[in-house]
Protein 1
Amino acid sequence: MLRRHLWIVAVPALTIGVVPVRAETVTVTIEKMRFSPAEISARPGDTIEWINKDILAHTATVKGDWEVVIPPGKSGHLVLKATTPVDYYCRFHPNMKGRISIPAR
């Protein structure tokens, strides 16, 4: 008589996890007709918040793309979608300029 044995071997599942990157909020202060800091680093999905401490309204504008209006004494925000660096300015005061750099992954 021929006997056959069936062996069941338990193998732990191999899990390769990807740790999601948490979106962050990056703050830019507008004071004395300047974006401060003038250059920030942010990733797609991060929120950029501009806090306007001036008595005048300002914008954060990317020509042909987006614009955030920031009233005096208020804040405005945008969830970043760009995957390449972005230069922005205030439409009301074009000498005010800022840059959003995208860090390498």
Note: The first strand starts at residue 25 and ends at 30.
Protein 2
Amino acid sequence: MMLNSLKSRIVILVLCFGAVCQWAAGQSFPEKEGERVYYDFSMRRSDMELSGICILLCSGDTVKASIVNNFGATLIDYSYDTKKSKIKLHYVFEKLNKWYIRRVLKRNLKKIMLAMRSGESSYKDVRHKLSYTFILNHDIEK
């Protein structure tokens, strides 16, 4: 009888853990209209680092995103079409607003958004020696 009880407790524990994991994964990328997700963001290279907050907002088939530094200045504004899997850059900070940097950013942001949808929180561009990290932030007031 005790073994039966122990087995049922383990099954319940496993089911609860699975439900929590699904809930956490679902919260990492906005899927519903008007839903927002906040990340602490950093982009590193050997000679520079950018950090701040990334805000994702679901608007129909598009996810609108803004990356803002710690002082509140916008670094990058872009949108991601979830159906076509395309990135459109709307604004890039003046120091990064070069055609060759925009092209790399566009390619990397597409890969980052695909990674976020699958629950990953980092991406490395080996060719350009860039590493991106996104840490889910539940502390920001909505």
Note: Residues 8-26 have pLDDT under 50 and may be disordered.
Protein 3
Amino acid sequence: MAKKSKKAKQKMPLAYKPIGFALGWTSGTVAGMAFQKTWKVIRHEDNAPDALDRDRRWGEILLAAAIQGAIFAVVRSAVDRAGAKAIERSTGTWPVPDKGGRD
């Protein structure tokens, strides 16, 4: 029985990959929506500046990039953690066998 449990733990990361992919896609979508709403509150503009937008200043572009990166990292971490905890609750096994994670 111990061997079976060990094999199940080894296969979990492979089984988690499609779930992790779906969670990653979802977190990217949610982060994009959160950034758009945040930018609208901060600057009262519908569109955030793009790095190649000729009419925007460096400060605006870098501020938008910093805010977008922070929001993306927080949302991604929250969704990843919630997904891993859900897998652990349903299977009894943490989906990633080693410490450190994806980064």
Note: The two ends are 34 Å apart (CA to CA).
